[in-house]
Design a protein that fits this description.
- This protein has a single domain, classed as Glutaredoxin, CATH 3.40.30.10.
- The protein has a seven-stranded mixed sheet with strand order 2-1-5-4-3-6-7, covered by helices on one side.
- It is α/β, with parallel strands linked by helices and 169 residues long.
- It has four helices and seven strands.
Length: 169
Amino acid sequence: MLRRLVLIVLPALLLGCGLGRDEGPGDPSGRKRVSHATFADVSGQARTLAEFGGKVVLIDVWATWCPPCRKSLPEVASLQKRGGEDFVVLAVSVDKGGWGDVTPFLQANSSLGLEAHVPGPGEGLKPFGSITAIPTTLVVDRQGRLRERWSGYAPGRAEQALAAALKEP
């Protein structure tokens, strides 16, 4: 019995900070529009995904206290630095303390060069449905529709998903 419990719980802890079933992107022929999702930058400016129309957006939902999130952040920061004309990478922290938690973390880890955001006012991350584990990665296509999502950190998966999304018109 204990062995079965360990086999179930241990992978969940290693792959993501949280248990629960993650939702998929839905019907591939009718992707859910999520361009009304909101987030706030460090200056407090509220933004929406609609601002990035025509670009692929990769969103990494993370928290400062989450070990798998911390492990994934160097890859997220690297992709974020490479973004530009075709894609954008947003690292959205769901720390309960908001910027009070995020700012000291970013200062202590300044070598990452990570630009972070927090969920914005209004819709926030609700358009993506329930996020029950972190890190959760969301890939939004050029039309503002959810293309793919997964929870947990797998080295290289974000880059592969981004490359696949960039191949679509």
